[in-house]
Structure formats: C-alpha cells, structure tokens
Amino acid sequence: MRNFVIFLLFSFLIFQSISCGGLINNDTNIYRNDELRVLDEMRTLGRIKEIEVSKNDNGYDDIIIHAFNGTEASFYSNNPCGGPGPAYSIIGSIPTLGIVFLDRTYSCDMGGTTIMVSLKDGIYRELKNSFWNVDQLSISPNGSWLVISNADCSMGYSCNIEILSLEKSNNSLLNSVYSNPRVCARNNSISWFSDNGFNTETAIGENNGECVYRSVQFNYSNNEWVFGFK
Q: What is the largest CA-CA distance in the chain?
C-alpha cells in the first residue's frame, strides 16, 4: 500500500510539472506557460541556458548564443574606449518568441547599435534605432506589437521610435513596420488605450541636458502607424 501511495504521488508530480509548463516544447522551442513579456539582463541569463557569457581580458562580455538548431551566434568584444572594435552586452529577451537583444557600442557610452538575435537559428540583424534598457520596450495588450523607443538628452538630444510586429512570419526575427528618427516615447510613459493605439510623451528638445516632452498619440489604422500631438 505504501509503495502504491508513493507511486501515485510521483505520478502527480510528473503530471504537474508538465501541465505547469516546466518542460520545453521541442516542436516550437518555446516555454509553454511563459507569458509574452520582456525579461531584463539578469532574468534572461537566469532563464535562457543557451546564452554563454564570459569576461575577456579587456573586461567586456564575450557572448555566444547556442541556437536550438545547433548553430552559434558569436559576439566577441574589444575595448571601445581604447582601441578598435565594439563591446557587447545583453539588454534583454522575449523567451516565448526566442528573441534576444544585444547592445553593441563603439564608444564608452551605451546605445550604439541594437542587435536582435534569434535563439531558434542564430541569425541576427541590427534594428533601425538603438536602445539599451528594457524600460524602453512596451508590448501591446493583445501581443501584436513591440514598441522600442529611445528618448535621451543627457549626452546630447536623442529621440527615435521603432515598432515591430510580433505576428508569426516566415523569418525567425521580428519585422519592423514603423520607424521614425524624430519622434519617440519617454521611458515607462507608454499607455495603451487599445490593441492598436497608445499615448506617450515625445521629446521635442533639450534644456541643460534634460529632455523637454510633449504628449503624443500613436494609432495603427489603414495598415500603417501614424502619430499626432495632443
């Protein structure tokens, strides 16, 4: 009887681990119960075991991403402050989509170029605009859009925005559907009022290293994103 009880308990634990999404779906290479959300660098490294990070002799991160199909995407850092070559750091990830974001900089400041890497096959591309913090990303309520924006005046006026489609495509990477180098969204200021529209604040200039903002609204209509000041 005791052995039978142990067997039932063991069977329940196995069933619970599967039903709760603790295992990886080998058909789609995503976590079954993971919500569509952006993880920061620390949670990315704690969650995605395919990412290998090691400090090199210059004190910068060498990053190797071991893709699900067996290929690799390698990013070896040099010292951008004292010699040629970029340095790389992890910004964050969207595990359910198998996407990792890296910051590549050729100077001592963050936000040189943002690289999007696919965990599925290791392919990657540069985004049109750069960002360096997960606070600069926002996902629409229905999970259709990813808004990425850079609003910064501390090291010179910088304002841009890029919107990517999260819908399935033939490409392992996300498609950019909108980009604008003259309008942006203030960090943590995006407020979605629908699945296809949000309010935010855009930087319109700078004053003593601080951004001057103005309210703006973005809408997706007639198959395109448009904005207007409020």
A: 77
With tokens 């049109």, the residue in question is 128
Return the HEC string of the chain.
CHHHHHHHHHHHHHHHHHHCCCCEECCCCEECCCCCCCEEHHHHHHHCCCEEEEECCCCCEEEEEECCCCCEEEECCCCCCCCCCCEEEEEEEEHHHCEEEEEEECCCCCCCEEEEEECCCCCEEECCCCCCCHHHEEECCCCCEEEEEEEECECECEEEEEEEECCCCCCCCCEEEEEECCCCCCCCCCEEEECCEEEEEEEEEEECCEEEEEEEEEEEECCEEEEEEC
pTM of the model: 0.81
> What's the burial of 40, exposed, middle or buried (CB within 10 Å: 0-12/13-18/19+)?
middle
> Which residue from 58, 26, 158, 48 is spatially nearest to 102, judged by alpha carbons?
48
Pairing assessment for the beta strands 99-105 and 87-94 based on DSSP bridges: antiparallel
pLDDT in tens, 170-206: 789 999 999 999 999 988 889 999 999 999 999 998 8
Beta bridge partners of 221: 224
